[in-house]
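Dear colleagues,

As part of the handover before I leave the project, I'm documenting each prediction I ran so the next person doesn't have to rerun anything. This entry is a single chain, and its sequence is reproduced below.
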Amino acid sequence: MSEQDTLARRFEEHRPQLRAVAYRMLGSISESEDAVQEAWLKLSRSDVTAVENLGGWLTTVVGRVCLDMLRSRSTRREDPLQDRDGYVRLPDPVVTGLAGIDPEHEVLVADSVGIALLVVLETLAPAERLAFVLHDLFAVPFDEIAPVLGRTAASTRQLASRARRRVQGAAPTPDADLVRTREVVEAFLAASRGGDLEALVDLLDPDVVARSDGGTLRPSVVRRGATDVASQAITFARFAAASPHPVFVNGVPGVLAMAEGRPLSLMAFTVKDGKIIALDILTDPERLARIDLGSVLGD
């Protein structure tokens, strides 16, 4: 086996974690793959004989690539990423069937990386996001992150601390009981289809946030408050001739609504203390079309 073949084999061993890092940094599955491929190109052109921890080296390389991609994004006015009233860009969901998450996606969505958390990460400045993701989610020491940002370790620690406060305030840790979460989701669907406003409001946290991403051709909306979100859920259920299919969205129970054999919407629920605190709805036809229906629905 040649030296290049050996290097490629070692890289493949680290690929799942590198994809996980990139997904948390970018919120885009395709861009994550691009970032990981760029890391391979950098590795193949580098002399790493003196590198003791190849995984750590590759993680910081991917972090630097993602940082550049995020900074490039922020300069493109046509691609706004921050959640605000009137517009929301949801991160790419990882959709799997009820049989469970396949090994390829397991690392990608481990550690409760739900859509709601990714939405909050999208609102962080690129440097904050890097510091938080690498340190808090992947335990990379600050003195290894600092050179990527061109900052001191102390300054990098402050960035991560600031990001952590924002994440904890806006994306509380969801309930770990997936069976109970599925029950809440099913109760939400039943109340929506039945037009039971009181039951819906009871299932929602008073400060629930519902975000809808329709892509470039459909309006995107952010709604807040139990009564408003419940009313819209009933309206949608009443007029959308859709068949709901239970799925996992980033490892958490969700719903894929189908109409005439095509995906109409994908709903991701964040449940805390038995109440729905966030409802993220993807209705973008372009991204819905990428879902592997055969795998997800078991056809």
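The radius of gyration is 20 Å. Strands lie at 95-96, 204-213, 221-224, 243-249, 252-259, 262-272, 275-282.

All the best with the project,
I.
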